[in-house]
Amino acid sequence: MSSRQPVVPDSSQAELEDDDAVSPNVEGDEFMEEPEEQEEGYSSSTTSSLTWISWFCSLPGHEYFCEVTEDFIEDDFNLTGLNTMVPFWKEAMEMVLDVEPDDDSARVPDVSIIESSAEMLYGLVHQRYILTRAGLQAMVEKYENGVFGSCPRVYCLGCNVVPCGRSDMPGLDTVKLFCPNCNDIYVPPSSRFQGVDGAFFGTTFPHLFFQTYRELAPAPFWKAPSPGSNALSRSASGSNNNPRASPFVNPNPHGGQKRAAGYVYVPRIYGFKVSERAKNGPRMQWLRLRPESPSQLDQVDWRGRWIDEDDGYDDDDEDDDDGDRKMEDFDPDAADDDDDDEEEEEEDEVDHAPGPSAPLHNQRKVPDATLPLQPTSARTSPTSSVAPRTPREVDQTTPALYTNSPSPQSIAGGKIRAVRQWTPRTDVWAGAAQV
Amino acid sequence: MNVPVLPVLAFRAQMEDISTGSDSDYSRCWIAWFLSSKGNEYFCEVDEDFILDRFNLTGLNNEVANYAQALDLITDNLDDDIQDELRGSLDVQARLLYGLIHARWIVTARGLAKMIEKYKRADFGRCPRVLCQQQALLPVGLTDIPYEKSVKLYCGRCEDLYSPKSSRHGSIDGAYFGTTFPHLLFLVYPSLIPPKSGPADHGSTNASGRDTADRNRRRVRDEPEVPPAEGVGDSISTASVALKVERYRPRIYGFQLNETAKLQRWQEATRDRQVSRLEELERRGAI
To answer: Is A144 exposed, middle or buried (0-12, 13-18, 19+ CB in 10 A)?
Structure first.
């Protein structure tokens, strides 16, 4: 962008594809809200020193996009199905790839239509590209430079976020930001991102990203560094051990390997915690809470019930407790189960491997035979980010695995089917469990 | 920057570079000037008789240097012949003093009522969490001691804290709002506790006619906004509201992630345990 000089934004000139007619891009936020209008004056040209793609990515509001390589776009396989979604496909392709149109007379008179088609095309290709090894690598660079910003939640302590869509279909919602620490999504702080379609990033990207770069993903458990920090988190109670040794390790090799920021806000009135018995007492701390150790996660079965506990959740025992004490720990029994930590952790490894399919396992029953699941190897590829596969390779294997799961059909296929049942059931359960 | 009327203001404008204009109105009244300055949108007006009642200021003379003069400046009683060097520091002290008085004021009945008006106008911004659906926020401090932590924003829906979007607000001292304020507000006005699901209850997304209609409708319902409001929410039960909370579920190609799903199940089991505990308490009339 900086290399281009804004010149007189003469519309006739713009339509003649004067590559210098980029002046509106200096206008800032307001313009981004009407992308069509804004882009009217833009056009691409082969004479430019800047490709259409790098120009597009440098527009204000387009900071989240990475540059898709041209050979990825040129490979028709990667574009499967997109031609039905993008009007003026050929012209849009020519614009994105900076190809001089062969026949000027055949062109659509209004270049702004092509511009929005090109944006749509690029966005949808971008959604696919950032799931490839090369795309993930381009995005991790931006992530580490903080291009996507950080989580607005105070106790996420500025954890970096990644862009995220709520839908994979364009036109439904704008881009959001996913925080791996609180596993929640946020509205970007600047209004200039309100013109960016969330589908251009997609629903899968943030999670594949943190599966691929596990060292960037916070672990699901957290222990307060010292009892002194009680004031900030109720999870701190009863932790008299030293914090985990300096190199943080999550026993689950397929889980997040970063130390989480686990403080949960405790509301106070004149220094006293607000009791949960009050109408305005805390009701939402569970949303941000983490267990102190990974083994505690296994105390909840796949349907979301506490293992080794009747459905009454020990109501009667706890009723007489003083409210404040309970605030310190929702799960006073948690410490009792330490004896089977080790075996459960081993099973974790088995369990976590097949990512999405695992929820249906009852941890204690996983047969070892299920270990070499196709999905595992195919999906997550090696932890190290060293040897990137070519985009096409990844692209072919990745979708295949959830749809067909070829070789261990009997096992994996069955699992996957069961998972499909599982997924909606979480919600059903959540509703049912309240009874 | 316009040329202010009084020399005091001239200096102040120079010092702060944030005076939004200095028509005669503001030049007469320090508080009005302060409230209208850019970046001070979170503050509400402290009634003058609250400030003039020395009982309300107990102990503040230890927190604020040049306490007496700072107080005079706030209440517009400052002598005009104060030296210029003093004026600069005095302005800083006056802000500190006003902030600390403000923290005490907004937990009084009248202060709460004023802040509710601002809350309904969403003067403090809206929750950035997508599933909170633009819930209006309330300012809160992480400590009541000045110069320690900047102001944060509390969302009554997700009950969590967020940093202000703008750095202007991000640099306001949290002690000027205090740790108590939002929680006392919802304690006194349980009817204002936001619902855990569905669109924001008041001050809805855009401040158009719908907003005012909404507010008028609400006004009818919780008319006794000015104290006393205790007892308004007696019929409200919040024991199981958490079950209605929408949450985000990370998925890869539509499948949940194992570790995250596990954490979320654990969190929801924790929630269910609290809900059944509260429901049991409610059944037995203990709440």
So the answer is: exposed
Name the domain boundary from B113, B140, B170: B113
Mean pLDDT of A198-216: 96
Query: How many angstroms separate the CA of residue B26 from the nearest CA in chain A?
Result: 32
Judge whether B219 lies within some domain: no
Taking CB atoms and an 8 Å limit, are A326 and B277 in contact across chains? yes
pLDDT in tens, A314-352: 444 433 334 333 344 444 444 444 333 333 333 333 333
| Binding-face residues of B in 55-84 toward A, CB within 8 A | none
A313–B286 CB contact, under 8 Å: no
Per-10-residue mean pLDDT, chain B, length 287: 40 43 60 94 95 94 91 87 77 94 97 97 96 96 95 96 95 96 96 88 42 41 43 68 92 90 95 94 82
Beta-carbon separation of B270 and A433 below 8 A? no
pTM of the model: 0.69
Among B162, B243, B250, whose Cβ lies nearest the Cβ of A183? B250
pLDDT tens digits for A129-153? 999 999 999 999 999 999 999 999 9
Q: Name chain B contacts of A313, Cβ cutoff 8 Å.
A: 272-273, 276-277
Q: Which B positions 204-263 lie with beta carbon below 8 A of chain A?
A: 233, 236-238, 240-243, 245, 247-263
Overall number of domains in chain B: 3
The pLDDT of residue A48 is 54
The CA dihedral of A172, A175, A179, A183, to the nearest 10 degrees, is 0
Q: Judge contact between A179 and B244, C-beta under 8 A.
A: no
* B39 and B102 housed in the same domain: yes
Those residues whose C-beta lies under 8 Å from the C-beta of residue B39, and which sit 6 or more positions away, are B18, B168, B169, B171, B172
Report the candidate in A205, A121, A198, A188 with the shortest Cα–Cα distance to residue A167: A198
Q: What digits encode the pLDDT tens for the residues B37-63?
A: 999 999 999 999 999 999 999 999 999
CB contact under 8 A, A281 and B264: no
**B155 lies in which domain range?**
124-204
Residue where a domain stops, chosen among B113, B143, B166: B113
Q: Does B218 map to a domain?
A: no
What is the DSSP code string of A144-213? HTTTT-B--BGGGTT-B-EEE-S-SSTTS-B-EEEETTTTEEE--SSGGGGGSBGGGTTTTHHHHHHHHS
**Which of A283, A319, A358 has the CB atom closest to B159's CB atom?**
A283
| Distance from C-alpha of B138 to C-alpha of B148, rounded to nearest angstrom | 19
In a domain, B250, yes or no: no
Q: Are the Cβ atoms of A220 and B233 closer than 8 angstroms?
A: no
- Reply yes or no: is the peptide bond before residue B224 cis, omega within 30 of 0: no
- Tens of pLDDT along A61-106? 999 999 999 999 999 999 999 999 999 999 999 999 998 876 655 5
Structure confidence at residue A161 (pLDDT) = 97
Residues B55 and B104 in one domain: yes
Contact A286 B274 (CB under 8 A): yes
CB-CB: which of A154, A176, A277 is closest to B281? A277
Residue B248 lies in a domain: no
Smallest Cβ distance to A207: which of B157, B251, B273?
Answer: B251
At position B167, the amino acid (one-letter code) is S
CB nearest A359 (choices: B247, B261, B268):
B261
